Amino acid sequence: xxxxxxxxVPFSADCPNCGAQTRSAAIVVGxxxxxxxxxxxxxxxxxxxxxxxxxxxxxxxxxxxRTEDIERSIVNRFHSEFAFTNGRLISICxxxxxxxxxxxxxxxxxxxxxxxxxxxxxxxxxxxxxxSDAALTEFRGGTSLEESPMQDPDYALMLICDAESVNGxxxxxxxxxxxxxxxYAIVVKGHEGMEMLRDALNDDLKDVVAAIxxxxxxxxxxxxxxxxxxxxxxxxxxxxxxxxDAGYRQAS
Length: 252
Ligand SMILES: [Zn+2]
Fold this sequence. Notes:
The protein has a five-stranded antiparallel sheet with strand order 2-3-6-10-11, covered by helices on one side. It has a five-stranded antiparallel sheet with strand order 15-14-13-12-16. The chain is α+β, with helices and mostly antiparallel strands. The chain has two domains: 2-150, no CATH class; 156-245. The radius of gyration is 20 Å and the shape is elongated. 20% of the residues lie in helices and 38% in strands. The structure holds zinc ion (ZN). Zinc ion (ZN) binds at residues 15, 17-18, 20, 22, 93, 95-96, 98.
């Protein structure tokens, strides 16, 4: 899931852990959010399937995958309401900080979203949220529920590179890797997060570097998709080595 349209929805609930009534919050994403379906077979090339518009409001049941921006945008700002547990974003009790399970709060949150939204009391946070693994429950006419868990079973996001074009436009290049396919892929996104290109390449990172050069993009920053992942760190080291061999130099 990729979005810059999301809302923090406050709610009150009885904590199943400590029994006290607690205030917390949940995330609802808007129709402009981009999603990819899980309906694809693991063997298919998920990167060749275009992002689709969500076209509905949806409650975020869980977010995982790339977590840097989620931590910055949600957990650090709203630390009494959200936490990361086992790499997943959860709503927590303000008293005991235990997880409030979505199943117990879903209808409260969804009703609250409709009620507060009608009174224009919700604000679009407009910060980029990207999660390779998101479980959403779509609003259908504000009442009925539909589950749509999504994940990329085949490709894993390794690196996110900030990039600039020769015209000074900024964007990002994502480096994905599939162990099963022994293949790298890149996704190039413009500054609004609009996907410009996705390209599956072979297992040679030289081809990735060549493709970036062909696109006349200059890399300005490299970020690990998951800060603590040794797999991502390895991908970074390999990538930097190939960049170096191709004549790229890191600015100090
Ligand atoms: Zn509690």
